[in-house]
Amino acid sequence: MNFSLYFTDIKKIWKWAVPFIALALLSGHFLEILLILSGLFIFALGFKTLRKKWLIDNTPTSKVRSAAMGPAEFNGIALRKTELASRLTHTDCVYYKFRIEKEVRGSKGRKSWQIIESGESACFFYLEDTTGKILIDPLEAETFMPRDYSDIESKGFSRFRYSEWLIKPGDPVYVFGTVRKMKDTIADRKEKLFAKLRKLKEDRQKLAQFDTDKDGRLSAEEWDNAVRAAEEELTREEMNNPDKVEDELVVGKGDLEKTFILSDKKENQISRELLFLCSALVIIGILLAVAGSVSLIARAGLLPQSLIIPWINIFIVADYQFSF
Fold first, then answer.
1. Is the pLDDT of residue 3 over 50?
2. Is the pLDDT of residue 82 over 80?
3. Beta-strand runs (E) in the chain
4. Residues 207, 218: contact at Cβ < 8 Å?
5. Among candidates 81, 262, 73, which has minimal Cα distance to 178?
6. CA-to-CA distance for 52 and 58, rounded, in angstroms?
7. Where are the domains of the chain?
8. Residue 8's pLDDT band (cuts 50, 70, 90)
9. According to a count of CB atoms within 10 Å of the terminal CB, is the N or C end of the chain lower?
């Protein structure tokens, strides 16, 4: 899963949280109120995850041939549109993600992995079912994929960990996203026509063919004939080289519905993972919010003092643990 997408929600609640943080600083109970806010935030993420699960469970699977504009889900196999090799293993694929981490030591000597480089491919690929194929734009997708490659390598006195996730040609693929037109056909045709007319104006010999009265300039009627000829030429070109039907629509992240999931797992597997994550987030969020609230009320003298969270003891234990 791409958990980094969740952290974009912090910006959305920042303005809402500022007054409470200010109140916490003024009241001297910053840690309790921060704990409550953290619990509420995690609780909200749980419900956001639940909504994704609901969308997956309640959206009928569309067939490519009958795909409609807007949110939709598709099941099929992945096919390449362009040649693509993965970043680390150079494996032939239609989509990849990678991560490179370096082992670092903290001030207490504790080892951890720090991400030094990560990324994903942005090449379009096809999803094909029994009725046809449709383009997939993987940019900003939330992925549910098992790790395909992992390795740890020592270079001098440093250690690096390499991870890669792949969708290869022929792999089963599940996509929930927004179907939209690849391009505006009318605007595209106008641009092609304008390009032809610009080229015609630069070609004096060809332009002279429409000067029927041979006065060295085109009248309004003669220019209309030139435009009509350009339109007819464009129509013939389109008939001889029609656009591929599968390239007319693309599935990606929508402007209104932001949910965009890409996976090589089955739909029920994704639903189970979301249910587990949702349950964990909701439970953790409730526990943090309740613990912070009880400690805050106890500090106000409305509950026994024994219910106050002993922050100093927690910090001492944490510092002791991280020193090893």
1. no
2. yes
3. 70-80, 95-105, 111-120, 125-129, 132-136, 142-144, 149-155, 158-167, 172-181, 249-252, 261-263
4. yes
5. 73
6. 10
7. 3-182+248-287, 186-245
8. very low
9. C
